[in-house]
Specification:
Length: 735
């Protein structure tokens, strides 16, 4: 069918270049922009696959300016629309050239937008898919000349895309209702499967297809084990002062936490997530774009279409749910062709959490989600060139053996001959009629009798257990590298069933050398609290002894037991971290602001002198300051005790056992905060019992050990009583 379009313009090359220079100030096009624009101007449907930074926006902005009528740009995010409209107005002498129509506008603003469109002043009208479905908007759009429809972030159409949005599925029927015009679909990330989904759903299977290479040569890719992440991030940013960066987290809570800890460590950072009110979100985005802050900490809600060319690093605190998401988010680094470092922190525990989040969703959606997650696991754990893996995922071949810009290529693992392993994989896949996924094949080879293996009687196969000396992780690695070598292909339509290719059959018939490299084995430390306080070095025994002497001296002066001042674990941590300021001392285990300012001065002066005399190089990560979690349990406990609430009520509200609550209170008091529990203790412990336990800690105890106290006081006292009086004693004497 021939589409008679308001955009159908016969133009010469010189005319297109004149418009490019006049409106956008460029002398030349990037990549295949010119061919795309000509295709649109000729009134043809168009599919554009162009990685972030390739100049997708220009592909519809220029023909919109040149064509008759108004181009309708369907875009998923209000912030993205605003950004695009502002950019377009900067290119023009009139603000009327571009408008957006969405829920953020008042009635008066909507009236103004519609008037400008009807007066033919507006060349680009940005709408959200939700706005497009409103009856009054459909009736309005029926009355204007539409040059073409541009569907931006078109991967949102596909259930196999990383950001599926059901409302995108309704775009084509609405276009048919309003009136057909050429359609241009644009995305930065689409596997062959997602591309087909987009074209099929929009009804543009005959569209002109324009694909750019997914390779971003200036980007450096690295995956790190998820340990001491906060410290590492702060150290990285401080070693790259003034550089612009984005840190992605999966949860809103983690976004807030990381942004706060960056700020208290002197880094100009702001949070961004969908749970914030739109005004604050927009303001934070604008401050990042205007370079008032260096770092934005965000969920995936941030970044779509954000045109900031000089983002120098993208850090993933949490590994993303899919490689499409990872690729798009890392693609925001180095859009100007300059430096772009992409660092992701990975733990398999995070993958397991993501799988749990899928529970309760439709089975088909869970299957898709798991397949996408498996691809992410493969990318993270593999020791193969990361660029080669990424491009292979998007259906592109990277010919070089070493990209020289990823951790795996710069620090390659030792390779070994793997020809026999590859042959075993290929023969097993053929033996099960190419009807099973990678995990199932790995289970057969390592001899693991799962319910699926047993039900299909694959434990009876001659290949069952042929590679039992290796685990399933090894066999998954072999399968992955056979996929990259194109010996295998993965049938995405059927949830990842493995098929042997012609090249694979040729290798089977005449096996040759095939070098393999073992995957990474990342540690599963994800507990940030534990990692944050982990002892990463040996205790300086000489300093530890000197600190104990100082503590003893001060305890005599203050007439309090030594453990009231600082407990042994705190002194040990000082003998590892070497704090030389009161701020740094507060980062030591068991030391809060109260204790630091009450007792800390002599300790940090002693440590500073010791460090200078011994010429000790202190751990760089001591610059990290911790943050009180303002929304956390500790603040609630302190406030509740101030209000004299019974401990049983506090425990019930926070879902704690009484023992757990007392542990929290002990931690608060040990770090230097004074708490007055007299109201509660008086209600539950008789006076004479209070005095006997208190006297023990004041006059007899050599340490604050609970075990020693129980042994000394005998079975007449409950453990809970002793703990409560110990809290009272430490709070009275130490804080």
């Amino acid at each position: 069918m021939t589409i008679i379009s308001n955009c159908e313009v016969m133009v010469s090359d010189s005319t297109i270049h004149d418009y490019l220079k006049k409106y956008f100030g460029f002398d030349t096009f990037k990549g295949n922009q010119e061919e795309i624009i000509k295709n649109i101007l000729a009134g043809r449907d168009t599919f554009v696959l162009m990685p972030t930074g390739g100049g997708k926006s220009l592909c519809y902005q220029l023909p919109a300016v040149m064509g008759k009528g108004t181009a309708i740009v369907i875009s998923p995010l209000i912030a993205l629309m605003k950004n695009q409209v502002d950019a377009m107005r900067n290119f023009s002498t009139s603000d009327d050239v571009a408008h957006f129509l969405n829920s953020s506008l008042t009635k008066a603003e909507i009236t103004r937008v519609k008037k400008d469109v009807l007066d033919r002043e507006t060349k680009l009208l940005y709408v959200a898919p939700e706005s497009l479905t409103k009856e009054d908007n459909i009736e309005f759009l029926k009355n204007i000349k539409i040059s073409f429809y541009a569907v931006d972030e078109a991967h949102c159409i596909s259930e196999w895309g990383h950001d599926f949005r059901p409302e995108y599925r309704r775009i084509r029927p609405i276009i048919d209702t309003i009136g057909r015009a050429p359609i241009i679909a644009l995305t930065a990330t689409a596997t062959p499967k997602v591309q087909h989904d987009i074209q099929k759903n929009l009804g543009i299977l005959e569209a002109g297809i324009f694909k750019s290479s997914f390779n971003r040569p200036n980007l450096y890719y690295e995956v790190r084990s998820k340990q001491d992440v906060t410290k590492e991030i702060i150290r990285y940013i401080k070693n790259n002062p003034g550089k612009s960066g984005i840190i992605y987290c999966l949860s809103r809570k983690k976004v807030e936490e990381i942004a706060e800890v960056l700020k208290v460590n002197g880094i100009r950072a702001l949070p961004y997530h969908a749970g914030m009110d739109s005004a604050t979100r927009t303001q934070n985005q604008d401050r990042f774009l205007m370079e008032e802050v260096d770092v934005i900490v965000a969920t995936i809600a941030f970044g779509m279409g954000i045109d900031k060319p000089d983002v120098r690093f993208v850090i993933h605190y949490d590994i993303p749910k899919s490689l499409e998401g990872y690729y798009q988010e890392t693609g925001r680094a180095g859009r100007d062709g300059g430096e772009g470092n992409c660092i992701a922190y990975y733990s398999y525990n995070d993958i397991m959490k993501l799988e749990k989040f899928m529970q309760g969703k439709p089975i088909a959606e869970q299957e898709i989600g798991k397949q996408l997650l498996l691809e992410t696991v493969s990318y993270a754990e593999s020791s193969v060139c990361r660029r080669k893996l990424l491009l292979h995922y998007f259906g592109e071949e990277y010919p070089k053996d070493n990209c020289e810009a990823c951790d795996n290529c710069l620090h390659p693992k030792t390779q070994f001959e793997g020809s026999e392993s590859v042959v075993n994989v290929l023969e097993t896949i053929l033996a099960v009629k190419e009807k099973f996924k990678a995990d199932h094949i790995a289970h057969i080879l390592c001899g693991k009798v799962t319910s699926a293996v047993k039900s299909y009687k694959h434990n009876k196969l001659e290949f069952f257990g042929i590679g039992e000396e290796k685990d399933e992780k090894y066999w998954n690695m072999v399968i992955r590298q056979a996929l990259i070598a194109k010996f295998l292909t993965k049938d995405i339509e059927n949830y990842g069933l493995l098929k042997v290719t012609q090249k694979g059959n040729e290798f089977l018939n005449k096996p040759g050398s095939f070098m393999l490299a073992e995957d990474h084995d990342y540690a599963d430390t994800t507990d940030e609290e534990n990692a944050f306080g982990a002892k990463t070095a040996a205790v300086d025994e000489e300093l530890f002894s000197i600190l104990k002497d100082l503590r003893k001296k001060i305890s005599k002066q203050k007439e309090v037991p030594p453990f009231v001042i600082f407990q042994d674990p705190s002194l040990e941590d000082m003998a590892i971290q070497y704090p030389i300021t009161l701020d740094e001392l507060q980062n030591i285990s068991g030391v809060g602001a109260g204790k630091a300012h009450r007792y800390g001065k002599e300790f940090v002066e002693l440590i500073k002198k010791y460090v200078e005399e011994k010429e000790i190089i202190r751990p760089l990560d001591m610059v990290v300051k911790s943050v009180v979690n303002k929304s956390g349990i500790k603040v609630y406990i302190i406030q509740s005790i101030d209000m004299k609430r019974p401990l049983e009520d506090i425990a019930e509200v926070k879902g704690l056992e009484m023992g757990e609550l007392i542990s929290e209170i002990e931690a608060i008091v040990n770090s230097g905060t004074r708490l007055n529990l007299d109201y509660y203790i008086s209600a539950v412990i008789e006076d004479d019992r209070q005095q006997e336990i208190y006297s023990y800690f004041r006059e007899e105890a050599e340490s604050d050990s609970l075990e020693e106290a129980i042994a000394e006081l005998g079975n007449d006292f409950e453990e809970e009583e002793i703990r409560l009086i110990r809290i009272k004693f430490l709070s009275d004497m130490g804080n």
